Predict the 3D structure of the following.
Amino acid sequence: MAIRKRRSFGDIMDSYFEDLEGEFERWRESFLERPSWNLKAGTLEPLRDMKVTPTEVVVTMDLPLTVESSLQVKPLDNETLEISAKMKRIVHFEELGVKHHKGEFQRFHCHTRVPVPVKMDDMKIRFKKGLLEIHIPRKRG
Amino acid sequence: MSEEVSIIERQSIPQGATILLGFPDVGLVGVIAAEHLVSELGLTEVAYVDSRLLPPLVVLHDGLPHSPIRIFGKDKLLLAVSETPIPGDIIYAVMYALIDWAKKKDVKMMVSLSGIPIQDRQDLKELKVFAAASNQSVLKTAQDKGIETLSEGYMVGPQAVILQRSARMNMPALALMSQCFLNYPDPEAAAEVLKSLAMVTGVKVDVAKLLEKGEEIRLKARDVMQRTQQEMTKMKKSQELDLPMYVS
C-alpha cells in the first residue's frame, strides 16, 4: 500500500513558486524564440516589462523614436492590451545592421496579456522620454 | 576551469595596459559604453576569447567570423567586450581566463563598466555613478575623484566575479556602475559611466554623440537586451535590488 506523506505548507508554497517560475520561463522563451519584427506588417515589437503589485499592474514599454500623438493603448478584452505607435521615421533593415533582408518598419506593435483581473476602464497612461508606463488597478474580491 | 577558455592574441599585447570591460548586463550600459569607446578612439581587435563552453555562434563582420567576446586595443588601452550575453554557468570560466591573462600582461588596472538598476529611472534627471573595487587603494582613487562608493549591497554577474577574483589575486580592479534601467538599453547611463571613467583613468571621449544617438541605440539594442534579460533572470540578477543582511 502506498503511503502518502502529508506536504507541509512550505513544500506547497515552494512547489507553487516553482510552477509559476517554470510557466514564466516558458512564456519568456516562447516570446524570445521568434523575431522581434514583422516584415509583412512593417512593425517592430517593443521591449516590455510588467510588475504586479497588490493594488495595480504596471506595464512598461521602451518605444524609442515614437511619435507621442500616434500612441494607442487599446484593451482588446479583460486581460489583453494592444499597443501601437508610429515611429518618427521609416527604419530600414540595413540601419539595424542587417543586409541579408530587405524591408522597412514604421510602427511598434504588440499584444500584452495581464495575468490578474484588472479594471481596464480605470487604466492610466504616462509617456516620458520614449518610455510608456501603463497603470491598471487590480480588481479585488 | 580557465584552461577551457583561451585568449588568442592577434598581435603583440603591451605589458602594463589598462583594461576596460563591457559585458551585456543591466541597461546594456557596459556594451553601449564599450561600442562608443571603440568607435571614438579607433580601437581595433587585438585578441579574442575562444572556448567550447561558449554557445555555438560567431558574429559576422564583413562576411568574416569573429568571436562574440573580443578584446580591442590601441597603445596601452585594452577593452574586452561581448556582443552576446555570457551564459551564467560559464561566467566564472570566462572571467577567470580574462583575469589570469590580464595578470600575465601585468595590467595597470581593470575597470568594469556597468550599471545598477533603479526603480523609477525615467523620473531621474541626474544619474549617479557608484564604485566598488578589489582593494582599498583603488577604491580611494575613485573616491578622490568624487565618485560615490557602493558601500553595501549585492553584485551579480561578470563584474562580481572580476572583483572577487582580482581581490584574491591582489590585482587592481574597479567597477563603475551608473544608475540605469534594469531591462531597457540606457545610453544616458553609458554616457555617465564614461564621464566617471575619464575622471579615474584619463580615458576621455566625447559623449555628446552617444546622447544624440540615444534613441537609435535603444532601437538597435532591443534584441541583445532581450537575450540579456533572459540570462539575467537565470542568474537572479534581481538580487541586486534586495536589501542586504549585515553580518559584521
In short: Residues 9-32 of chain A form the longest helix (24 residues). The interface with chain B takes residues 25, 28-29, 32, 36, 44-47, 49, 60, 62, 64-65, 91, 95-97, 128-131, 133 of chain A (CB under 8 Å). The mean pLDDT of chain A is 85. The radius of gyration of chain A is 20 Å.
